[in-house]
Amino acid sequence: MISYADALRIVCSHGASLSLRTETLTLLQTSGRILAENVVADTDLPPFDNSTVDGYAVRLQPGTTEWKIIATSHAGHSAGFKLNEESAVAIMTGASLPDGADAIIPIEDVLVDSDRIRLRDDAAILRGKNIRRKGEDLKCNSLAVPGFSFIKPQTVSLLAACGCHHPLVFQKLRAGILSSGDELIPIESTPRDDKIRATNPSMLISSAESMQLIPVDLGVVADSKEQLRATIGNALEEQNLDLLITTGGVSVGAHDYVKEVLESVGMRTIFWRVKIRPGKPVLFGMLQKGEKAIPVFGLPGNPVSAFVGFSLFVKPFLETVYHQHALPQLRASLENPISKKDTMRHFMRGVIRYDAVSGKNCAAVLAARSSGDMKTLSDANCLVIVPESVQSLPAGAEVECIPI
């Protein structure tokens, strides 16, 4: 059994094992994807000097506080006006500057009398004020969006401004998702006797989609070596998987066959069991299929353990693959005391909030009953970290929290 820090380091070190493929999409298809090329500006941004406010374009002359309005300049309908020290052009936000203009007086800073304006006594104007210069944001041929950028809606805007209407992005990876357990029944069925609904496939498919994976539902398999081997073997042959995520069957029970079966089809176990709670039996390995190396994450079957395992290992692995920066852990003040009885690293379900009175984050640990308690997991918005060496923490203690 290894530490969480060592397990995370090992998982992330294998990020380069995946072979990434690319595809070209229309710009409106790319939000949430990862850019696979450097995009440079094909024009200056902005492409011309323009006004940042509604007001009057003038050519400043010391002592001059009055000007005659000679024209109006609208965004997209600018004409070749030329100013001297005594003239002004009424100008709208975004309109290009007239020749000779070196300042924009906001409309609220002047008094208007017919075709003349006068600077208010309490206003001041500086040369260059309220002007956005050509190329101020980006020069033509300069790097606008580097490769491996996560494409947010605001990134789409910048790509559009650079004329990148068909960006090259990384194809989504295909993640096989397999659950095992004799006790599992479809979610459409009503549990009877010792059966329970199979909730992990739905949770993991949703989690995979949130990480821009293509989930390949391999179904729910009984605790049978033969069925497991057949299902995994068929998936490897037919589904072109990039990674494999399983839940259940990785502990030390008499019918926990997943690790054994995976090794029988070529997986090399890299680690099995980590000093964390929940999720101790987590498995990580690499399965060689021809020239393709397929990472395998064997998560425990308890729903909370499976979710925590995905959050702690699968997500960081994918962030490493795509050169992404994980959301920072948040520091918070505990609202209730907590304790544990072992030397494992605990990830407790909690609710973090910002307290406006104290100006600090506060976190309340939920009274979770088990690693199958999906209610507290659904209510939680963070995992509160309790390090290995800590046995108890009083209310008010500072803790690290992982947003979920």
Summarize the structure.
This protein has 404 residues and is α/β, with parallel strands linked by helices. The chain is built from seven helices and 28 strands.
Write up what this structure looks like.
By secondary structure, the chain is of the alpha/beta class. It has four domains: 4-20 and 172-321, MoaB/Mog-like domain (Molybdenum Cofactor Biosythetic Enzyme, Chain A); 25-44 and 146-170, Alpha-Beta Complex (Molybdopterin biosynthesis moea protein, domain 2), CATH 3.90.105.10; 50-132, Molybdopterin biosynthesis moea protein, domain 3 (Molybdopterin biosynthesis moeA protein, domain 3, Beta Complex); 330-403, Beta-clip (Beta Barrel), CATH 2.40.340. It is built from seven helices and 28 strands. The strands form eight sheets. It has a six-stranded mixed beta sheet with strand order 7-4-6-5-9-8, with no helix packed on it. It has a six-stranded mixed beta sheet with strand order 16-13-17-21-20-18, sandwiched between helices. A five-stranded mixed barrel has the order 22-25-24-26-28. Helix 3 runs parallel beside helix 6. The model has no long low-confidence stretch (mean pLDDT 95).
List keywords for this structure.
7 helices; six-stranded mixed sheet; 4 domains; Molybdopterin biosynthesis moea protein, domain 2
Topology of this structure?
Elements: H1 4-13, E1 22-24, E2 39-40, E3 50-51, E4 55-58, E5 66-73, E6 87-91, E7 103-106, E8 110-113, E9 116-119, E10 131-132, E11 143-145, H2 153-161, E12 168-170, E13 174-180, E14 184-185, E15 196-197, H3 200-210, E16 214-221, H4 225-238, E17 243-247, H5 258-264, E18 267-272, E19 276-277, E20 283-289, E21 292-299, H6 303-321, E22 330-334, E23 338-339, E24 345-355, E25 360-365, H7 374-379, E26 382-386, E27 392-393, E28 398-403
Parallel strand pairs: 5-6, 13-16, 13-17, 14-15, 17-21, 19-24, 22-25
Antiparallel strand pairs: 1-12, 2-11, 3-10, 4-6, 4-7, 5-9, 8-9, 18-20, 20-21, 22-28, 23-27, 24-25, 24-26, 26-28
